[in-house]
Design a protein that fits this description.
- By secondary structure, the protein is of the alpha+beta class.
- Helix content is 52%, strand content 10%.
- It contains nine helices and eight strands.
- It has helices at 14-29, 33-38, 56-61, 72-90, 97-102, 152-175, 201-224, 228-254, 261-279, and strands at residues 67-69, 105-111, 121-123, 130-133, 140-141, 145-146, 189-192, 197-200.
- It has a four-stranded mixed β-sheet with strand order 1-2-4-3. It has a two-stranded antiparallel ribbon with strand order 5-6. It has a two-stranded antiparallel sheet with strand order 7-8.
- Strand 5 (140-141) and strand 6 form a beta hairpin.
């Protein structure tokens, strides 16, 4: 399978990443944030990556209303062992270094009251290197494919998905003066028909960057999968990714005047990887 190589994070000086991480975590977490900052450079096992020192108030600030962090004790050793086993198995077929490098910390969240938004995983600009997951991450992949039972690839994709968001945010913020150089007064957006909303260019760039990577892992998983129903669902996911990328990449290129050279290089590189998938 063709390898995706769009950005190279080794070019970013580690001190820049640390400073970025420190400022963001301090601003939001307050108490407890120092633990994450101090341990940022540490290499973690899967079980040691789970954190539960983000308060309900902190989750509310992120828009995760009526969610709470589940501690590793509450998750129980069986669930953590299952989680680790799945990732170890996936690592035989997929490169999980992006997950290891950009999901330094995992926060398992669970709704405790209604109303709440149904999510499988998420991540935030305000909290670099932290990915949030729910039980749905074992079965659901974006934007709308649900497998009939827990599926190791689904968990991998959700973690990869969030790690890609973090990779792009951190790369651009640590290597350029902000994400974009927009013309004064511009307010560009791209209409997203599968959500029936408009996304900002920042959001659209993030989504395209994630989907171009997921397109290739979905194609690979489709070839690996033996069970016919799962192959059908993966094929649906592949088509959803192609549809999304067609809208996102074309929309980003249409508004190319809003981007600096580094951003444009990423957009055109994504297009280079995308075009053969619709031509072949």
């Amino acid at each position: 399978m063709q390898q995706i190589a769009i950005i190279k994070n080794e070019e970013i000086h580690p001190d820049l990443i640390r400073d970025f991480f420190t400022s963001k975590v301090k601003n939001l977490l307050g108490i407890g944030g120092e633990i994450l900052i101090r341990d940022y450079d540490k290499e973690y096992s899967i079980s040691d990556r789970f954190i539960n020192n983000i308060s309900n108030a902190g989750l509310n600030k992120l828009g995760l209303i009526n969610y709470q962090c589940i501690s590793s004790d509450d998750m129980n050793s069986t669930k953590i062992a299952e989680f680790a086993k799945i990732l170890n198995e996936i690592a035989k077929e997929y490169d999980i270094s992006t997950i290891s490098n950009y999901s330094k910390f995992l926060c398992w969240i669970h709704p405790f009251a209604k109303p709440y938004s149904s999510i499988s995983s998420t991540t935030f600009y305000e909290l670099p290197f932290i990915s949030f997951i729910t039980n749905a991450a074992f079965r659901t992949i974006a934007p709308a494919v649900v497998f009939p039972a827990n599926y190791g690839y689904a968990l991998f994709e959700n973690l990869y998905h969030e790690s890609l968001h973090q990779q792009l945010i951190i790369t651009l913020c640590c290597s350029t003066e902000g994400l974009f150089k927009r013309p004064p007064g511009s307010n560009y957006s791209i209409h997203i028909p599968w959500r029936n909303i408009n996304w900002t260019l920042e959001h659209s760039l993030q989504a395209a960057y994630v989907y171009i990577h997921l397109l290739f892992t979905r194609i690979k998983q489709y070839k690996l999968e033996k069970e016919q129903h799962y192959k059908q669902l993966l094929n649906e996911a592949i088509n959803q990714a192609k549809y999304a990328l067609n809208i996102l990449i074309n929309g980003l290129i249409q508004h190319k005047s809003a981007f600096n050279e580094e951003d444009l290089a990423i957009i055109y590189k994504m297009n280079e990887f995308y075009l053969p998938t619709i031509e072949g």
